[in-house]
Amino acid sequence: MDTTTPFTPDDDKNQSTPPLSTPYPMPPAKPLFSLAKGDFIFALFAVIIGIFTAVSGVFGGFSLGYFLSCLLMLALFAVYFIKGTTLRFFPVLCGVLALCDTAVFICTSNGSVRFFGAVSSFLLGLMCFGELRNGKAKGNRETLGIFYTAGATIDNIDIAVKSLFVSGNGKQKVLGKALIGLLCAAPALLVIVPLLMSSDDAFQGMMRNLFSNSLSNILKAAFGLVLSVFVLTYGLSLKKSRFAKMKTGNGTTLENVYIISFLSAISVIYLLYLFSQLAYFFSAFRGFLPNGQITYAQYARKGFFEMCAISVINLLITFLALVLAKKRDGKVCNAIKLLTTFVAVFTLIIIATAISKMVLYIGAYGMTVRRLTTSAFMIFLAVVFVSVILRIYLTKVNIAKTALITAGCILLLLGTVNVNTVCAKYNYESYLSGRLTSVDVKAMYELGDEGIPYLVKLADHKKTSVSKQAKKYLAQAIIYDYFEDLDNKAVLSVDLLQSKEKDNGFSHFSIPKAAAYKSLYAFIEKDSDFTYHYKGFLTQPDG
């Protein structure tokens, strides 16, 4: 029996319904970029250069191809931003130094110098164009804000891409219509191209050569296209002044008594440390080791790691003290100035002592890339701490800008002078002159392209053991590093090797690599015994 009550219209009035929740307000849609003809030209070249950078630069060995791609990228932004921009000394200096730093890719094969050269060139380029569009960065915070702004432009990727194809009123632009036409042509081309290939052998051969590495080329081009999107977004955002800036403010401060007490304790310990270690630290300045059982290697390494740790700690201490201290008329009190100055001066003493120790180390064991780059890093730190001292008393000194320019100049010097060549030449000439009693042939080989010409010279050395070791590493370089498919070749010749060169495309060219190939060919022509027995030298023992 049905006991349910029939529903009547009046019942609906008695039903209690939960109130509708208030939706969160949607953020306003970001307006599209209003693009002119020049903006479309910039976008076109951004895509072309982005793909070229991926194919010939990033996947081209980071040599000539990468140098050219960086050159083109910097030129593209310079031309795009030049109109309506007031040129100033510092951003122009950053742009010139960024351009010069890209030269390291054709001047040296040193991986560390190339990597940090790329980082330095990138940061200098951002500083150049960011300052031109943002306005002059007066303080350290505003300087670092340039990089914040560059990262914040990523938020405009969607509207940057959409602006190329759609106008503000929603209508498609010519570029969007052209893209749709190309996409519609793809199915037809999939039918037409195979028919044309089957009808003509010449066209078939051309298409096979064109698409022989199609998957690899497509992936490289896709990476370049993604890269160009970031380039495009950054350029349009700065050009149209559509970017976020780092917020500035007074921030948190501490009572000066806390900071003075903290710095006083640190300074007392540093002062006691200096007095207790005078003989140990400053013996390096007099050119001899301290008393006790210790080698040059232990002496230099200990000094370097002490310097690194203390420098980083002291830089952080000084920075926080100056930032957190309560200021009067924008200036910190004299006590904090004196204490932070002492900490910075103490750090400079540690750095100077470490450099002196490294000079002793090099004099005893010869020069290596690591020892030379370590010395360059210590010089960089010294310049930074000098700027820190100046900043304590002169508020106009910009530590961030000083560090950036100093790093760019040091990397440019290491790259163009070529730290690998300097090491190879120093060790070779020191061995010949008798300043060094032995030469590390393996280390010479590990220098890469720059070491090959000096291995060739050592192969002619009157000392048989040195000559054999040099020929061993020359054979190793020929078989594994510079040529391919030599397994079944009993006799070497210049013509054979020239046809077997590795990475011989223009994008892989560099000055040291060209010199290495030239030296190898000259050695092959000169040493007939090596050309017939080159594989036998691989079994030579080290020593």
Explain the overall architecture.
The chain has helices spanning 9-14, 37-58, 64-82, 89-101, 104-107, 111-134, 140-152, 157-165, 174-199, 201-210, 214-239, 256-276, 278-286, 296-324, 334-365, 369-393, 399-417, 419-433, 441-446, 452-459, 464-482, 494-499, 511-526, 528-533. With 543 residues, the chain is an all-alpha fold. Helix 3 packs parallel to helix 6, helix 12 (256-276) packs parallel to helix 15 (334-365) and helix 15 packs antiparallel against helix 16.
Number of helices: 24
Q: Average pLDDT, to the nearest integer? A: 84
Strand content: under 5%
Low-confidence blocks of residues: 1-16
| Percent range of helical residues | over 70%
Tell me the total number of β-strands: 0
Shape: flat
User: What pattern of helices and strands is seen along the backbone?
Assistant: HHHHHHHHHHHHHHHHHHHHHHHH
How far apart are the termini? 107 Å
- The structural class is mainly alpha
Tell me the Rg in angstroms: 32 Å
Major β-sheet annotation = none
The quaternary state of the protein chains shown equals single chain
Structural descriptors:
mainly alpha; flat; 543 residues; disordered N terminus; 24 helices; 71% helix
Question: How is this fold's topology laid out?
Answer:
Elements: H1 9-14, H2 37-58, H3 64-82, H4 89-101, H5 104-107, H6 111-134, H7 140-152, H8 157-165, H9 174-199, H10 201-210, H11 214-239, H12 256-276, H13 278-286, H14 296-324, H15 334-365, H16 369-393, H17 399-417, H18 419-433, H19 441-446, H20 452-459, H21 464-482, H22 494-499, H23 511-526, H24 528-533
Helix pairs in contact: 2-3, 2-11, 3-6, 4-6, 4-17, 6-7, 6-17, 9-10, 12-15, 13-15, 14-15, 14-16, 15-16, 16-17, 20-21
